[in-house]
Write a structure and sequence with these properties.
With about 400 residues, the chain is of the alpha/beta class. It has 17 helices and 13 strands. It has a seven-stranded parallel β-sheet, sandwiched between helices. Strands 10-9-8-11-12-13 form a six-stranded parallel β-sheet, sandwiched between helices. Helix 5 packs across helix 6. The chain is globular and about 60 Å long. It starts with a strand and ends with a helix.
């Protein structure tokens, strides 16, 4: 049996790297049996993802295809038809290499939180070919569902939700094939690297921001103004250094863009930016683990804080932030809704975190090991989908050698 990851994309989003590595460790499979479709194989090799997963490059778009697509786009303005042309080109050859003895994992976590996309195309294609599929480590909100998504969800043999709020919602819609386990990234270990100089001279607040939570790349939005207000307070009333930590470096959603604008806005030597481009996910996790408090927009950056017992505020814009925080045991106020921001809510959350920092850190320390161990239970569920023999259903804890790979 081979396991295919058509929605891996690439480690330009360090969350994609985390999912790939965490999943490989969970499944305890050789990399030859784990096959991921990748849009930047050079980057993924730099990040050592190819130590875990066999990487297949997206097909290049030939001149003939580009001309054909342009003609189709001129003929129709139907967005779904336009997308299907691109998806068929990008994914069909990869998906055709799957057989009925293989399994497809649809990764990406929050892919179903956005508009209809390639998750739907790939699961429908797998269903047509008789290939079993699992929606892997997902979060989906009530407001994210569309008729098209609901029909696509029915084509998955199993839905692995990474937090209980998603399971409850899907159960209410009649889906009884939903299991809940922590996100696969939780099991990864920090990888020691050289820390920025700010750690040697002061206590550090880690801050990850993105255009998704701000509402664009400019600092004139309501949520950007709340971030500015919090940073102003830290610079004037506290002695922390602020380390901006980019986590996604894809074009059109590059965290470094808004990070640089925020640093330049203040022009303070107490604000710096981590050179995340040179670090893999586990190295960034190591940096986050050394912060006193972490405030993050990207889910897998916040997961790094939780997993290393760093008190964290999630800058949430979908069910994933609330669901993961709830399951970890974080208080409701530690998730700040960036889409419905209330005046001073971010600063208030920061002040509460400072006040309760010790208690929250102790709470996470107490619960995190058992929470992480739950993740390995997904292995049994995968075996059930694959109709393995009963002897394979016996879960065994990972050996030290297994976890050292992370």
């Amino acid at each position: 049996m081979r396991i295919f990851f058509p929605i891996h994309l690439d480690g330009g989003n360090r969350g994609c790297e985390a999912i790939a590595k965490g999943t490989a460790i969970l499944l305890q499979e050789k990399k030859e049996n784990l096959i991921g479709l990748c849009s930047d194989t050079d980057l993924d090799k730099f990040l050592c993802i190819d130590d875990y997963v066999t990487l297949k490059r997206f097909p290049q778009k030939s001149l003939l295809f580009r001309i054909y697509r342009k003609i189709i786009f001129l003929i129709t303005k139907d967005l779904e038809i336009r997308k299907s042309i691109t998806y068929k080109h990008d994914y069909q050859r990869f998906l055709k290499s799957m057989s009925r003895t293989d399994i497809m994992l649809s990764t990406g976590g929050d892919m179903m939180c956005y508009q209809n996309n390639q998750t739907i195309f790939t699961v429908n294609y797998a269903k047509q070919r008789g290939v079993k599929s699992i929606l892997w480590g997902c979060s989906i909100g009530e407001n994210n569902l569309t008729p098209t998504k609901i029909e696509a969800l029915k084509n998955f043999n199993m839905i692995y939700a990474r937090e209980t709020l998603t399971k409850v919602m899907l159960n209410q819609h009649g889906f009884n094939n939903v299991v809940v386990f922590p996100d696969p990234a939780f099991i990864l270990n920090p990888e020691a690297c050289t820390l920025p100089e700010c750690f040697s001279s002061s206590e550090v607040i880690g801050l990850n921001i993105s255009n998704f939570v701000i509402g664009g790349f400019e600092l004139d939005t309501p949520f950007a103004k709340e971030i500015i207000k919090m940073v102003e307070y830290i610079l004037s009333e506290a002695q922390f250094h602020i380390l901006l930590i980019p986590h996604v470096m894809w074009k059109d959603q590059d965290d470094r863009v808004v990070s640089k604008k925020l640093r330049d806005y203040f022009g303070s030597d107490r604000i710096s930016i981590l050179d995340s481009e040179k670090l893999n996910y586990c190295q960034i996790r190591y940096v986050i683990s050394k912060c006193n408090i972490f405030i993050g927009a990207r889910t897998h950056a916040v997961i790094s804080a939780y997993s290393t017992s760093v008190p964290a505020i999630a800058l949430g814009y979908s069910i994933k932030s609330k669901g993961i925080a709830k399951d970890v045991g974080m208080p409701d106020w530690s998730v700040v809704d960036s889409k419905n921001i209330k005046k001073n809510s971010l600063l208030d959350a920061f002040l509460k975190m400072r006040k309760e920092e010790r208690q929250i850190k102790d709470m996470i320390l107490l619960n995190m090991n058992s929470y992480k161990q739950k993740t390995y239970g997904i292995l049994n569920e995968v075996y059930k989908v694959c109709y393995k023999c009963k002897c394979c259903l016996l879960y065994t804890s990972p050996s030290p050698r297994d976890t050292e790979r992370s």
